[in-house]
Write a structure and sequence with these properties.
The protein is built from nine helices and no strands. It has about 190 residues and is mainly α.
């Protein structure tokens, strides 16, 4: 069955977003061009600017969509954890999948760096980080933690830092930080 023009347009847009996400990790934010995205997506270069007002807008949307999907998975995962120890173990299992040089790690690193120079991206990424922090803080609060907000900030900074360090030291393991994380989220009397 033939696709309608709207379906073709939607598919082309999805291909462009996927291509841009991949290229950010493969080449770095500033090396991604209209030609490269179009080539990777299998479309003509003019299609890029038909769907997005600029390359920066395409890169922003691609990165925010990919990172948003990862952030959205955290809240439900934590709510299913019966204890803070189980929640930490779930977070660490997720973290263990990052090598620091895998496509997702590179996408995060490139996006964080680009956000220091792009106000729109900084605001969008800040909102995602805040949503992630709120999920972690709410989960800690539900488990009676004495300082859920401060601990959530610390945990998220540690997540980011661990991924950056893992790129420099691939042998680094979550097992190194597991006991400290368990102590950090421990609730007195429980």
């Amino acid at each position: 069955m033939a696709q309608t023009a709207a379906e073709q347009g939607k598919r082309a847009r999805e291909l462009l977003l996927t291509a841009a996400t991949q290229l950010i990790g493969d080449l770095g934010w500033t090396a991604v061009s209209t030609r490269l995205v179009a080539e990777r997506a299998g479309v003509r270069p003019g299609v890029v600017h038909y769907h997005f007002p600029s390359m920066q807008a395409l890169l922003r949307e691609a990165a925010m969509s990919a990172i948003g999907q990862m952030v959205d998975a955290v809240g439900p995962m934590l709510r299913q954890a019966p204890s803070t120890t189980d929640g930490v173990d779930a977070l660490l299992s997720m973290l263990d999948g990052f090598t620091g040089t895998d496509p997702e790690s590179l996408l995060f690193s490139e996006t964080y760096l680009a956000a220091t120079r792009d106000e729109h991206l900084r605001v969008a990424l800040g909102a995602l980080v805040e949503r992630f922090r709120a999920d972690v803080s709410g989960w800690l609060h539900a488990h009676g933690h004495v300082d859920p907000d401060g601990t959530a900030v610390l945990l998220l900074a540690a997540l980011d830092g661990f991924v950056l360090h893992k790129a420099l030291n691939p042998g680094l393991s979550v097992e190194t930080i597991r006991p400290a994380w368990h102590r950090l989220v421990a609730t007195p009397g429980k």
